[in-house]
Specification:
Elements: H1 2-11, H2 15-19, E1 53-54, E2 60-61, E3 128-130, E4 161-162, E5 172-188, E6 199-207, E7 213-215, E8 227-228, E9 237-257, E10 264-273, H3 297-310, E11 315-322, E12 328-334, E13 347-352, H4 360-378, H5 381-389, E14 391-395, H6 400-409, H7 436-444, H8 461-464, H9 472-483, E15 486-493, E16 496-501, H10 521-534, E17 557-559, H11 560-563, H12 570-577, E18 581-588, H13 598-614, E19 620-626, E20 637-640, E21 647-648, E22 654-657, E23 662-669, E24 676-682, E25 689-690, E26 693-695, H14 699-708, H15 715-728
Parallel strand pairs: 13-14, 13-15, 15-18, 16-17, 19-25, 19-26
Antiparallel strand pairs: 1-2, 3-5, 4-10, 5-9, 5-10, 6-7, 6-8, 6-9, 11-12, 12-14, 16-18, 19-22, 20-21, 20-23, 23-24
Length: 729
């Protein structure tokens, strides 16, 4: 790997001259973070196509930075060793623009146009065409920004569009469907575990009828503009047009590409309606009226404060801790009695932004808190019931450090992975304690549940050490979980359209994927189906798969471990360390949708977010009390016959046990009490079935309490105890 990096660094300064490009068209491998107006595309002077610095003697000096992209893949079979890419990046006669034909500085270039929708699938497959394709899996419908390939090349789900090798004039074409103002192009290379393929320069053409074409030209020379393209397969690179063009069709014509490879690309097109470009001159936070721009941390806090001021009687803002960079993890609590746990009222939560570049969940939670406030004030009966029957906690950003990185890069330029990790380079969804392994080992040894419990497994010793690799964000969430008796949760992610449920980790060690259900598989499948069945995008029968798997054939739900193994996931930890049942919702093919897509994404998810919360009423609920004092018993165990996973009561003795409809034998037990078993029926009617228990202390417990209170033991009881001790001896 290091040899490859050194080789890349060695030939990088020669890339520009090999293309014959003028000085201000040379592709620089250094790609600094860009400062961006919220929701807009960076101006060309901060573009990824950077100008090389001038030295004192007038020569060009380039700076090289190599970015290593971590891929979420597991390679299971050996293949041929990859040959090192050679520095020459041409596979056809070179097109050499003169310095006079270079792109002008972009004081007139349009920067505010949103993406046309290749990445988000708003542009259908039928509107993508190409001169040729190597295979169906490398067809034009795969030429979408950030699309991910499967593990195998040559299947139906390769990672980009690739022209045939013998195609001497390749092109990739997008039909906007109507006259559109095109302002820019973003490209990547092919996503592949096995291949290196990317385009290094291209031209752009336009048409209104797909027969007559004209090209994008330089202002000064009138020659066709040749745009510098990619230097690696994953980093998105933006080129703004010298002048926006109004047309229906746009074509990208690769001119040069990596030697030994083929012209392959993934793309997004920046385009505005011809009636006028999208205005960015609006306030970010107040009102959040469409188009709803992404909010930075301080702005999200301001928005939460506004919601609290509008609905002070049903909201409370609190922080559960800080990120590695010191940013607070703010939570919005919504209930008719905020700040206190009411007996018999379940606690539910939504968590978003665990991966900082997956921004849609964050925006949806900010919109959800506004919606709940507004509808409560309007007297909406559904919302009123939600807020009076449960306590809702919304954490919009678990990884604010990663979000800040992604935000400044921009929705279309952040790529697939930048901002995913926290500032310690920790993936928070792999950072929770692995409680699966000790549980499964104890089960194999026959120790569960008599010696090792099947619930509330303790943290491993290594995980509690001061030098353990545990992110501060993870520690904060674990403390939050322990402090509040959560019953139901969803973890909002992005990059796919599917709901995954535990277990997330495969039971077979080192297996890349394997069906690994929990004892509550029926409940988790129910919860997942409820969200997927209420999500408009997941229910669209005409939509195509996001990347390399079609989850619609299974109802848009999947067992997490059967998708890909995730040791240390928050879902598994919630299930094994607390009473909380949690699923992961992958909200959109696009991890960081553009702001103009947020209104539709809200409509896609609004009903699903509400319906999922309502599932906390499914199952049984009640209070376990002491017969003598009638006080609730904390930490009593609720066991359901046939389900090898128990839950416990909260400090007031109340509990909630999610179950699908059916008849269940339920046992309540607590230390120092006789156990009680009763039948509890769960129906399809709304509301949990009340299943209360009254426990009686054992004689031994009564004696302990008498002795602890300083009481004398009655003579007859003392004699009985002495006889028992004698028999025991």
């Amino acid at each position: 790997m290091w040899g490859l990096l050194l080789a890349l660094a060695a030939f990088a300064p020669a890339v520009g001259p090999a293309l014959g490009a003028p000085r201000n068209s040379v592709l620089d491998l250094a790609q600094p973070a860009t400062t961006k107006v919220p929701g807009s595309i960076p101006a060309p002077n901060s573009s990824l196509a950077q100008l090389p610095a001038e030295t004192a003697n007038g020569t060009s000096e380039q700076h090289v930075r190599i970015r290593i992209i971590k891929k979420k893949k597991v390679i299971m079979k050996k293949r041929k060793k990859l040959t090192r890419p050679t520095p020459l990046v041409t596979a056809r006669p070179l097109v050499t623009p003169t310095p006079a034909g270079a792109l002008n500085p972009a004081e007139k270039q349009e920067t505010g146009c949103p993406p046309l929708g290749l990445e988000s699938l708003r542009v259908s497959d039928s509107r993508l065409e190409a001169s040729s394709s190597q295979s169906f899996g490398l067809g034009p419908h795969r030429g979408r920004l950030n699309i991910q390939s499967g593990l195998e090349d040559g299947d139906l789900y390769d990672g980009g569009w690739c022209a045939e090798e013998q195609d001497t004039d390749p092109w990739f074409q997008v039909d906007a469907g109507h006259p559109t103002r095109f302002s820019g192009v973003i490209t990547q290379g092919r996503n592949s575990v096995w291949r290196y393929d990317w385009v290094t320069s291209y031209k752009v053409q336009f048409s209104n009828d797909s027969r007559t074409w004209w090209g994008s030209r330089n202002h000064s020379s009138g020659m066709d503009a040749v745009f510098p393209a990619n230097s690696d397969p994953e980093t998105p690179l933006l080129n703004l047009l010298p002048e926006p063009q109004v047309a229906r069709f746009i074509r990208l014509l690769p001119q040069t590409w990596l030697q030994g490879g083929t012209p392959c690309l993934r793309a997004e097109i920046l385009a505005c309606p011809v009636s006028g470009s999208l205005s960015m001159a609006h306030v970010i936070c107040p009102g959040r009226t469409p188009p709803m721009p992404h909010a930075m941390l301080h702005c999200a806090r301001q928005l939460m404060k506004q919601v609290h001021e509008q609905c002070p009687n049903i909201t409370r803002i609190y922080s559960i801790g800080k990120s590695y960079q010191g940013l607070k993890l703010y939570v919005m609590e919504m209930s008719d009695q905020p700040g206190e746990h009411e007996l018999g009222e379940p606690e539910v939560r939504y968590v978003a932004g665990m991966h900082g570049n997956e921004a849609l969940g964050r925006e949806l939670l900010l919109l959800l808190m506004q919606f709940l406030c507004h509808e409560f004030l309007r007297g909406n009966p559904r919302v009123t019931r939600l807020l009076t029957e449960m306590r809702i906690h919304l954490l919009p950003s678990m990884n604010p450090d990663g979000y800040e990185i992604a935000y400044h890069r921009g929705s279309e330029l952040v790529g697939w992975a930048e901002g995913r990790w926290n500032n310690q380079s920790i993936d928070l969804n792999h950072n929770f304690a692995d409680l699966n392994t000790p549980l499964w080992e104890a089960q194999d040894d026959g120790k569960v549940p008599h010696i090792v419990p099947n619930h509330h497994l303790p943290l491993p010793t290594y995980y509690t050490l001061p030098n353990a690799t545990v992110a501060p964000e993870t520690r904060a969430v674990i403390k939050w979980m322990k402090r509040i008796p959560f019953v139901l949760s969803a973890n909002l992610h992005g990059g796919e359209l599917v709901v995954s449920y535990p277990f997330d980790m495969t039971r077979t060690p080192w297996a890349a994927r394997e069906l690994t259900p929990t004892p509550d598989d029926a409940v988790f499948r129910w919860l997942s189906t409820v969200y997927a069945g209420s999500n408009l995008a997941m229910q669209d029968t005409n939509r195509r798969p996001c990347h390399s798997q079609d989850f619609s054939v299974h109802g848009n739900i999947i067992n997490g471990a059967d998708w890909h193994t995730v040791p240390g996931s928050m879902n598994d930890f919630s299930y094994l360390h607390t009473n909380c049942f949690e699923v992961t919702v992958e909200l959109s093919c696009d991890k960081f949708p553009h702001e103009n897509e947020l209104p539709q994404e809200w409509e896609n998810n609004k009903d699903a977010l509400l319906t999922y919360l309502e599932q906390v009423r499914m199952g049984i609920a009640g209070v376990v009390r002491d017969k003598d004092t009638e006080l609730g018993i904390a930490d009593a165990v609720i066991a359901v016959d046939g389900i090898n996973h128990d839950v416990t009561t909260a400090w007031g003795g109340d509990y909630w046990r999610l179950l699908t409809p059916g008849d269940y034998m339920v046992t309540a037990s607590a230390e120092g009490y006789h156990s009680v078993t009763r039948n509890c029926r769960v129906t399809f009617e709304e509301g949990p079935f009340p299943c209360n228990f009254v426990l009686t202390k054992t004689p031994k417990q009564r004696l302990r309490e008498l002795l602890a209170a300083g009481a004398k033991v009655p003579p007859d009881l003392r004699r009985r105890l002495e006889r028992l001790r004698g028999l025991k001896d």
